[in-house]
Design goal:
Chain lengths: 189, 243, 189
């Protein structure tokens, strides 16, 4: 069984907000053989998830070094790209390499700071050098990961404008909506 | 505050309401609250109030209300029992006793709670834990359809758009002014504005003719070349040449 | 020797800056029998200077209560709670969920503005939904931090709660009155 003094030293070290010197330990735990208690505690904790370590002349408990990886955990969260992000990605894919100003000109709206960051964090867009034009703006292009994620062998597999028109994807939204309304009415008739 | 009986401090501010004061007085009887003499408690409370009044202490209204109620309770307990009166004085006394028991129970529970080994006072967690981190990584979701639909959306939005305005049949203000002036020259009696419109027309052109003719009439009236009358809003509009 | 999973659970609990639920432990320590590890650790630390304790559904290490005299921190003695606050806390803890009117009925006095605020700011009391009764009054209940602060494994550990319940002292006066009426009638019969 653990002796009373070792127990006190254990509690003092645990509650401390930093490594403690022998004197500091004694100031809390009272008179006793601090060194003997430290030896006993070091042996007791050897191989456990917690270890007692000495730093210079001071002592503290810490999480076992080989378990440090447990303290940090990565978690994946499925998230849908925002409308701004998917439009920006589409413009880059169709027009690459494209500068920020070109993307904004095509979208007709400014790109917020985070949008390109998100696409680069996702691994789908990369900086693709500077354009030799006034201001030497940075251009952006898609990555091999982009092709892989969207199941494309190459960018040439992206449907062209005529294909999009044939698919009704160039119609303004409200017109498309009316079409589907009509289709529904026909089905119901 | 726990001083019993006569030495009870007369500090009204120290009490958390009449029930609190009653409980302190009840405890001074040094009996289990279930054996409490309500009559004695009433006497104690009324005596306390008397002394407070003698010392000209300011007494909050709820203490006085309680005093009045207890005085009523006391007389009811002492007088011969009237079975017609509901609730009976015994019931009122029992309810008061039950309330005191409940307050007492919670006061003791609170004291026992505070006396426990409390975190940060008696027991301690590590003052400097390494901490656990969760790093969230977003796995972005989008499929090929989202991508091409987005491009379609952008293209549709920014593609040059040609606006075609249909050629609608209208009567211009100039035409209307000319027509109405001409017709008005032949009109002495009040005539409805519809009589001034070109015959055999309907639909959009008739609406346009009516609107333009109305504005033309207003202009002619302003110039003193026409008079117009209407019985009520939306009633037929009549006009004629000034007499 | 300690097994690898128990060791991982030990390290995670030790590194945590607050009590951890079983799920949170598992999220860091990985798949395994967390409960078995907790049982083993609780037994291992029993009687030592550090203890593993359960507070609500969460677990943490803390110093042994009987060593308080070595560690007590007078300097940072918490602001003393008012009598009103202590009673209000006790009433909420023993009756939860409790409405403001119920608290006031027991104390025989209105709750002053700051009393519930102080308890909520301390993290011990939280709003706990509305009662489906006239006026839909808000109810209050205690928090997991309340259990952790007062060293309670669950509300069942509230001092004397079983006795109070058995004596009917947690019932409203009306209910208690009817009971005593029935009891008297039975005696007189």
């Amino acid at each position: 069984m653990i002796d009373a003094y070792t127990r006190a030293v254990e509690a003092v070290l645990f509650a401390a907000d930093g490594p403690l010197s022998i004197d500091a330990i004694r100031a809390h735990a009272g008179e006793g053989d601090v060194r003997a208690a430290l030896v006993e505690l070091t042996a007791h904790y050897a191989g456990r998830g917690i270890e007692l370590v000495r730093r210079g002349e001071r002592w503290h408990f810490q999480t076992a070094a080989d378990l440090a990886h447990l303290l940090r955990r990565d978690r994946e969260e499925q998230r849908k790209l925002s409308r701004a992000a998917i439009e920006t990605l589409a413009i880059i894919a169709y027009h690459e390499p494209a500068t920020r100003a070109e993307i904004e000109a095509i979208r007709g709206v400014q790109i917020s700071a985070g949008t390109l960051d998100v696409l680069m964090a996702a691994g789908w867009v990369r900086p693709a050098g500077r354009r030799e034009a006034p201001g030497r703006p940075l251009t952006f292009a898609t990555t091999p990961d982009f092709l892989a994620h969207f199941g494309l062998a190459s960018r040439r597999d992206l449907p062209g404008i005529d294909d999009l028109r044939a698919a009704g994807l160039l119609d303004p939204v409200d017109v498309a909506f009316e079409h589907s309304e009509v289709a529904n009415r026909d089905e119901n008739a | 505050m726990d001083e019993p009986g006569d030495t009870l401090t007369l500090d009204i501010d120290g009490w958390e309401g009449p029930l609190d004061l009653l409980l302190a007085l009840a405890r001074s009887q040094k009996v289990d609250l279930r054996q409490l003499s309500i009559l004695q408690l009433v006497e104690q409370y009324l005596a306390f109030m008397e002394r407070a009044r003698a010392l000209k202490l300011e007494i909050a209204a709820d203490y006085l209300v309680m005093a009045a109620w207890l005085a009523f309770l006391k007389s009811a307990l002492l007088l011969p029992h009237d079975p017609e009166v509901e609730p009976s004085p015994e019931e009122l006394a029992l309810r008061l006793q039950l309330r005191l028991e409940r307050l007492n129970a919670m006061r003791e529970a609170g004291a026992r709670l505070m006396a426990r080994d409390r975190m940060g006072r008696d027991v301690f967690r590590r003052a400097a834990p390494e901490g656990l981190q969760t790093v969230r990584q977003a796995a972005w979701q989008a499929d090929l359809f989202d991508l091409i639909a987005a491009y379609g959306r952008v293209s549709a939005r920014t593609r040059p758009v040609m606006h075609i305005v249909a050629n609608r049949p209208v009567m211009t203000l100039e035409t209307a002014l000319e027509r109405v002036s001409l017709l008005l020259g032949e009109t002495i009696e009040w005539s409805a504005i519809e009589a001034f419109l070109p015959g055999g027309t309907d639909g959009a052109f008739r609406k346009s003719a009516l609107a333009s003719s109305f504005v033309a009439v207003l202009e002619l009236a302003r110039q003193g070349r026409a008079e117009l009358k209407q019985q009520a809003p939306f009633a037929p509009l009549y006009l004629r040449r000034p007499a």
